[in-house]
């Protein structure tokens, strides 16, 4: 049983400016398959190697797999679908499997627009894929597929979704196979060293309205910190990794385990060999202000903060549960602990104006983080906010849902103006940093890291890959009228997916009506009981004064 896993060749001008990122999903899926006895697993990294369709086809022709598997976040979905279309042409008898967050929630859309996708793995894939491959290997896939949890597929004209599989309870039982990856190609540009993306936990207890993590991973689970450090030690010693980013949305939620993790890194002497970064919430920085020295001692050098917005009304819209003043304080605390800070701003909502964009710049200068990012608001099609936006969403070309393309058009400006004003913020912020901050702040590692960040921005800017500027034809304010985002207007929500959304909305309405009816019944019962008690008192059962 030969399995070939392929990472889609999708590029945008966002996180890639910092380097090439190793696709961790391959290691976790391959590790689970090999632990189950399926050793013939191959990997094609079409993204890092920038492989064209013909090259992917040639590799598949050479390998002749029984199964071809790929994954996709929303912007890479068409590339992933194309991989399985190529596979169907080159190795027609191979089973084409698609996983990932987009297909998990949008399986009716995917199976409608890409009928060559044989089966979708919904949710965490490590346990589902083993059961699926075992069924294929034993020749019983087609007769048993309706009984395998966590799948979606077409059966004739019917789109079938089997019962959801449970989440992986024993995360420490997964042994990733990192050997499949081409480590010499995964370089973190600011430090010019190999980079990895292990995870410490899955899930998120928060329900930010624009995010999908809490929906995909469902329950929040934290690994044994010693097991995580075991994995990191392997990455450092066997694969030469010098920098890692924890893949968790917020690894600091569980303070006790995060502290254990830091102490374990220190006990093994790893901070001398590897530095690392995290994403986290402002509230955790405020809570753990007295522990930041420990984080830094453990090798943590970079914290990306979900400040999200400079205006409190935006924070409230996103359910961020933070205050604007806390953003500034968190950045100050991290700076004092010698940890580099990156402030994230979400822009491009319906109520965005040139004045609100200018406000984010003023806050970025006032808070003085080491880095600042302005990300275009991207309404994932399976999040609550997308449903609430309704007909305000005009673009259904999911390839552009990449945080750098303005999917939403604010009322007060067109998309090209929005892009131009965001670039105006970037130019001013990083010009000041390049002239007066990065070359002069500190010595040794601090200076090296800051100059490395500047090098990453300069490299992406020179290559016109930053923010996809080369693709859309933006060269500055003078080119604003010629900007073209190349939206594919033919892309629409499939009827099956729309019907599913409408049914879901109808269920929510009916559930709300049932709750209201129950509340009304309880209220009526209470009123009836009060009336009976009042009648009893009137008949002599009450107290006499």
UniProtKB/TrEMBL annotation:
SMART domains reported for this sequence: Elp3
Domain B12-binding: 9-143
Listed Pfam families: B12-binding, Radical_SAM
The Radical SAM core domain, residue ranges: 189-416
Top-level taxon of origin: Bacteria
GO cellular component terms given for this protein: cytosol
Essential cofactor(s): [4Fe-4S] cluster
Family matches, as InterPro entries: BchE-like, Cobalamin-bd, Elp3/MiaA/NifB-like_rSAM, Methyltransferase_Class_B, rSAM, rSAM_horseshoe, rSAM_sf
Keywords, comma-separated and alphabetical: Iron, Iron-sulfur, Metal-binding, S-adenosyl-L-methionine, Transferase
An MF annotation (GO) of this entry: cobalamin binding
NCBIfam families for this protein: BchE
Protein name: (Dimethylallyl)adenosine tRNA methylthiotransferase
Annotated source species: Roseovarius indicus
């Amino acid at each position: 049983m030969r399995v070939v896993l392929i990472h889609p060749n999708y590029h945008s001008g966002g996180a890639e400016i910092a380097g090439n990122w190793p696709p961790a999903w391959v290691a976790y899926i391959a590790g689970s398959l090999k632990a189950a006895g399926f050793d013939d697993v191959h990997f094609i990294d079409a993204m890092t190697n920038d492989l064209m369709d013909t090259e992917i086809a040639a590799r598949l022709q050479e390998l002749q797999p029984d199964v071809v598997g790929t994954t996709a976040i929303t912007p890479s979905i068409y590339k992933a679908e194309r991989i399985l279309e190529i596979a169907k042409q080159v190795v027609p008898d191979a089973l084409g499997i698609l996983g990932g967050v987009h297909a998990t929630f949008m399986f009716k859309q995917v199976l409608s627009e890409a009928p060559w996708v044989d089966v979708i793995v919904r949710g965490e894939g490590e346990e589902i894929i083993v059961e699926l491959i075992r069924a294929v290997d034993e020749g019983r896939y087609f007769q048993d597929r309706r009984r395998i949890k966590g799948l979606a597929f077409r059966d004739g004209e019917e789109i079938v979704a089997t019962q959801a599989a449970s989440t992986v309870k024993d995360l420490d039982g997964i042994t990733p196979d990192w050997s499949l990856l081409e480590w010499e190609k995964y370089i973190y540009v600011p430090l010019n060293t190999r980079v990895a993306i292990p995870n410490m936990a899955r899930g998120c207890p928060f329900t930010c309205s624009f995010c999908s993590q809490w929906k995909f991973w469902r329950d929040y689970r934290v690994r044994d910190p010693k097991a995580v450090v075991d994995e990191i030690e392997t990455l450092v010693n066997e694969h030469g990794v010098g920098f890692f980013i924890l893949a968790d949305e917020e690894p600091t939620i569980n303070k006790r385990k995060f502290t254990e993790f830091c102490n374990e890194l220190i006990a093994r002497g790893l901070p001398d060999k590897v530095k690392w970064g995290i994403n986290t919430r402002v509230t955790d920085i405020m809570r753990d202000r007295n522990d930041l020295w420990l984080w830094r001692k453990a090798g943590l050098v970079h914290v990306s903060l979900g400040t999200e917005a400079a205006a409190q009304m935006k924070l409230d819209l996103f359910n961020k549960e933070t205050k604007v003043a806390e953003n500034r304080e968190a950045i100050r605390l991290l700076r004092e602990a010698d940890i580099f800070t990156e402030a994230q701003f979400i822009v491009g909502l319906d109520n965005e104006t040139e004045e609100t964009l200018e406000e984010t710049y003023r806050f970025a200068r006032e808070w003085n983080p080491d880095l600042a990012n302005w990300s275009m608001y991207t309404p994932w099609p399976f999040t609550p906010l997308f449903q609430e936006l309704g007909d305000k969403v005009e673009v259904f070309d999911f390839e552009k849902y990449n945080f750098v393309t303005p999917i939403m058009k604010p009322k007060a400006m067109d998309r090209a103006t929005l892009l131009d004003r965001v670039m105006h913020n970037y130019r001013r912020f990083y010009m000041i940093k390049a002239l007066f901050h990065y070359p002069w702040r500190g010595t040794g590692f601090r200076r090296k890291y800051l100059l490395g960040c500047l090098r990453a921005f300069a490299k992406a800017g020179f290559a016109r890959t930053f923010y996809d500027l080369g693709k859309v034809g933006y060269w500055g304010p003078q080119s604003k009228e010629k900007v073209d985002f190349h939206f594919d207007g033919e892309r629409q929500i499939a009827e099956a997916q729309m019907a599913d959304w409408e049914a879901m909305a109808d269920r929510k309405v009916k559930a709300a009506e049932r709750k209201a009816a129950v509340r009304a019944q309880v209220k009526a019962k209470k009123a009836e009981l009060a009336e009976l008690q009042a009648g009893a008192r009137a008949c002599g059962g009450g107290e006499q004064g």
